[in-house]
Amino acid sequence: MPDTVTVRSSPAAQPATSASLILECLRIRAIRVPLARPMHTSSGSILDAPLALIEVVTRQGVRGFAYLFAYQPAALKPLCTLLDNLGAALAGESIAPFGLEARLQQRFRLLGPQGLTGMAISGIDMAAWDAFARSRDLPLCRLLGGEPRPIRAYNSLGLDGAKAAGRQAVESAEQGFRALKIKIGYPDLHDDVAAIRAVRSAVGDALALMVDYNQSLDVAEAIRRIRVLDDEGLAWIEEPTRADDYAGHARIRAAVRTPIQIGENWWGVPDMVKSLAAGASAFAMPDVMKIGGVTGWMRAAALAQAAGVPMSSHIFVEVSSQLLAVTPTCHYVEFLDKARPILTTPAQLVDGNIVLSEAPGSGVEFDEQAVTRYLA
Q: Is residue 19 very low, low, confident or very high in pLDDT (cuts 50, 70, 90)?
């Protein structure tokens, strides 16, 4: 006997209830969204957001949405091709997320779940969870056993010089933020200090201040610089050296007073385990696209709770806010809103917090007119 399906009249949400959601196909599109403010870092500049849009289409009529950030335009087409191929291979299968994730991990066992393969697994996982939340007419956090609540956010800015840092700090305070992160890693340490002090001069201690080196230093130089920055009252210093050098980060952490933050480049939970074992960071900051989607995030959140480590997010503000609402050691959501121009209901910032709604799903749904405008 076929599953019973109940479909509401709303074409946008299309929720249904079903014992099992079966994949009809994946709809994949490539877009490039101009950034309102180019993101300059010590490791390079990002002028637009190359995004792979994922839409899970099920036989029951339920749809689920997610997007992936390819970083470089050159990576966008191969990422979309991989997703297309996976959609064809998975057609007719259940999208129950735990089983789906296990099958995808098995498929890439020999290749490894990093890079584009890891991103594709995470993106499909996020879209599958979104579909399941919509099928139950629940926001993702409620599906996972939590409730919508405000999630503390920090504004995330680039490497724009001391003058711009001060101006942007004032703008951030006016927008309601109570925390701010700027990029540093200038050729001269004096410029790092100048940018930090420009923020302090502009807003005082009204905003917690974090900085991000974007992996630009070797271990010895990181220790030298951070010992100078130890007197600047920073909430954390992010990725001072190569992201996968957990021993190096542990050496830095042992030699300085300011807390070290890493995690956005953990490829799956095994990388997080290695980082925690090395004592590489005072905090945790997984990226939902790299940690393994919603499924990987929940495993990471359990590890952070067991280790007593505060856990923040890296980009993907919509789904990350839903997940932080059920993360026991919830710390901060990063407000770096690359997909805002193509979403029907972007993340809402109120008094320095992301406020979650009761709308079904993860918070990701595409504005089709905007998507058409930015098709790559």
A: low
